[in-house]
Specification:
mainly beta, 12 strands, 10% helix, globular
């Protein structure tokens, strides 16, 4: 009986252990609002939770999609911030950009870039979202998006904050609403 019980218990443990997988689905929920350099980003896009997910594969292998952040001070002494993130799976290939062109510290910054003839490559403060499988691109217009910096630590290279806004189709059609946006990232790592 003991010899039969041991393989049965081992088999059950193996089966149950294989069911425990980390939920990497964007519907798992938004990341907590933190200011520790947790490397998180998430928002609601037309009511659906969006977080970086999936992998990008190329000639040199695959890498997990995650939020990337960079910051620099230009020749006029203005700090710029750029956050990018991707989400890919069998049916999606989406890309998100948060761009600030004059980051002076904690506070609220309104979108300044874009307009009806925007191309997505404009300088300025903006939110941008693209779905390349659907061939759709959206960008905020002046005054239609708000980015709030809640924490900026240039010594430890941490920036955290929130964002929301309405983005307009660059082709002239459609809008997307981004809400409950939050990020907590290390820049220039």
């Amino acid at each position: 009986m003991k010899t039969l019980l041991l393989p049965l218990v081992a088999g059950a443990a193996l089966l149950l252990g294989s069911c425990r997988q980390t939920d990497t689905s964007p519907t798992a929920g938004l990341p907590p609002a933190t200011a520790t350099g947790a490397e998180t980003l998430g928002f609601h896009c037309d009511g659906e939770v969006w977080t970086p997910a999936g992998q990008r594969c190329g000639l040199y292998g695959c890498r997990d999609n995650r939020v990337e952040a960079s910051s620099y001070v230009d020749g006029r002494g203005r700090r710029h911030l750029l956050l990018t993130a991707e989400r890919t799976d069998g049916r999606r290939q989406e890309y998100f950009v948060l761009q600030l062109d004059s980051l002076a510290g904690p506070g609220t910054y309104r979108a300044t870039a874009g307009g009806p003839s925007a191309t997505g490559a404009e300088a300025g403060t903006k939110l941008y979202f693209a779905d390349s499988r659907q061939d759709r691109q959206y960008q905020s217009r002046p005054g239609t998006a708000r980015i709030t910096i809640t924490h900026l630590d240039t010594v430890r290279s941490i920036v955290a904050g929130t964002f929301e806004g309405q983005l307009f189709g660059l082709s002239g059609a459609g809008t997307v609403q981004l809400g409950s946006g939050r990020f907590d990232v290390l820049f220039n790592r």
